[in-house]
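Following up on my earlier thread - several people asked me to post the actual chain instead of describing it. Fair enough. Here it is, all 121 residues.
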Amino acid sequence: MAKSLSDSEYTSVKERIEAESTDLLPFGKGDNDLPYYLSSYIDMVDETGRVLRDNKRGYISHKLGSVLTELELNPDTWLDEIKGFKSVGFSAVGTVNQLKEYSAKTKRKWTLGLRLKPALE
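Reply from S.P.:
Thanks for posting it. Predicted structure:
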């Protein structure tokens, strides 16, 4: 039995550890940056999680409006889009063109992704 994950010769863990890492896009105003502030993104993720888990301590009732407005997303469609995302196993979210670009950048023929509703494109 291996004493550490990196010693696990015949597992997918070993493959993932040794796989070439890819850089995430930075937040900012450059041509290749995500056009949001990091703090806005963190707020959106936090508040979305709290809205979706109404039994969770600290539940925030549909107050995503300000963050989503800043990100130019519709709060009503955002919650519809994000529900079930994890359970299906999508690897990306975006417009059709964004999903095609993601597939090309990650050298995939296709990407299991969620196409945003036209209101979000």
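The chain has a mean pLDDT of 67. That should answer part of your original question.
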